[in-house]
Design brief:
Largest sheet: 9 strands, mixed
Order of helices and strands: EHEEHEEHEEEEHEEEEHEEEHHHHE
Number of helices: 9
Strand content: 25-35%
Bound molecules: flavin-adenine dinucleotide
CATH architecture: 3-Layer(bba) Sandwich
Distance between the termini: 62 Å
CATH topology: FAD/NAD(P)-binding domain
Length: 355
């Protein structure tokens, strides 16, 4: 029997697995293949490490290896407000990474005492008297493992959350579409686009070497493909030249608007990262919360296995407060009238000489 089974080897699960004490018998289950060069089921993500994620990496004593970086590195965000027809630049330092390589690097730091199984899907679990039985599938073969504790680090579409916390209110759900287009140009800034005809959230453009990623997040009850096409039309009319289409990725993305949409721990089943609802409702930045919640759970378990649940729930209060503050800031970004006043005032904006 395992002490801890972790579902998902994204930044949250990999951080937890890396930091847990070696006295525990641990199994890490991941549906992607994240070993070697082969990539199956690539992650839909912008791959920008915002200042909060940079701070978390610093706190964890980590620096990013060169092969995880991609180009260009960006020091500003260009904000295009189609609702008010205004554009501004703001200083912001992101680290531009290859998301797949970031995940692989975090996994490479996991010590040998953690058993890992890739290309393996968690399907469900059931509680027994003194254990939890986890049902897994690999290459069509079904099998089960027993554990004392189950951790759901399985991201936005968390099956662990869906099963164990089904009575809880889920975060607002958006469908994210991100398409890759070839480019020969240089776009040395991150672009965020506000347009209420497209979405009440936002859209973005990020360069990754010879590709431009154009993405958006659409409320789940709307036609995401239609809205994506509308975004592209608007960009073309605005003067953007869209290069040859390369590939499309898509997934769900959570927007946690209330503390009640966060689920954390119950009956030895615990959630970390986006599975718990830890994601910025203003920018959709989630990597910092994944790293932080993974490390907080490791601390709680390493300190006292039997009472980890209370310690973890207490420690994530800071994350809840942080998400609450981000929600308070939302009208400044998403109310078209307030945004217009702020952008018109040129407060904190940069004058940039665009070539
Ligand atoms: C389009 C888009 C762009 C984004 N851009 C950024 C950005 O630029 N910067 C940023 O900070 N955040 C960004 N985010 C958010 C960020 O990607 C997530 O918040 C972050 O990855 C959460 O980390 P996690 O470890 O909790 O979950 P994930 O990174 O989602 O990892 C979950 C893992 O669980 C695995 N898994 C899921 N289900 C199962 C199962 N049933 N069985 C086995 N394994 C399973 C998955 O394969 C995955 O590896 C973006 C999100 C989206 C959708």
């Amino acid at each position: 029997m395992y002490d801890i089974v972790i579902i998902g080897a994204g930044p949250a699960g990999a951080t937890l697995a890396r930091l847990l004490d070696k006295k525990y018998k641990i199994l890490l289950v991941e549906k992607r293949i994240l070993e070697g060069d082969f990539i199956k089921r690539s992650k839909c993500c912008g791959g920008l490490l915002a200042p909060d994620a940079q701070k978390m990496l610093a706190k964890l004593g980590l620096g990013i290896p060169q092969n995880v970086l991609t180009g260009p590195q960006m020091f500003s965000v260009k904000t295009i407000d189609f609702d008010n027809r205004i554009e501004r630049f703001y200083q912001r330092h992101y680290i531009n990474v290859d998301r797949e390589k970031l995940d692989k690097w975090l996994i490479s730091l996991i010590p040998d005492h953690v058993e890992s199984i890739f290309d393996c899907i968690y399907t469900s679990h059931e509680h027994n008297e003194d254990s939890i039985l986890i049902h897994l599938t690999q290459n069509g073969i079904k099998f089960s493992v027993k554990t004392k504790m189950l951790v759901g680090a399985d991201g936005a579409i968390s099956k662990v959350r869906k099963q164990e916390f089904k009575g809880d209110k889920a975060p607002d759900t958006y469908v994210s579409i991100q398409k890759w287009y070839k480019t020969e140009g240089e776009m040395p800034f991150y672009t965020s686009i506000f347009d209420k005809e497209v979405t009440d959230f936002y859209s973005w453009i990020i360069q990754k070497n010879q590709y431009l990623l154009i993405g958006t997040a659409i409320p789940i009850n709307e036609d995401a493909n239609k809205k994506y096409d509308l975004l592209i039309n608007k960009l073309v009319n605005h003067g953007y030249k869209i290069g040859d289409y390369y590939k499309k990725t898509g997934t769900l993305i959570m927007r946690t608007r209330k503390s009640s949409q966060i689920s954390t721990a119950k009956d030895n089943v615990v959630l970390i990262g986006e599975a718990a609802g830890f994601i910025s409702p203003s920018s959709a930045e989630g990597i910092s919360y994944a790293l932080l919640s993974g490390s907080l759970l490791a601390k709680a378990i390493n300190k006292e296995y039997t009472s980890f649940q209370n310690a973890y729930v207490k420690s994530i209060k800071s994350i809840k407060t942080n998400i609450f503050i981000k929600n308070i800031k939302i009208p400044c970004m998403y109310n078209a009238f307030i945004r217009k006043l702020i952008m018109k005032s040129k407060l904190l904006s940069l004058d940039i000489d665009e070539a």
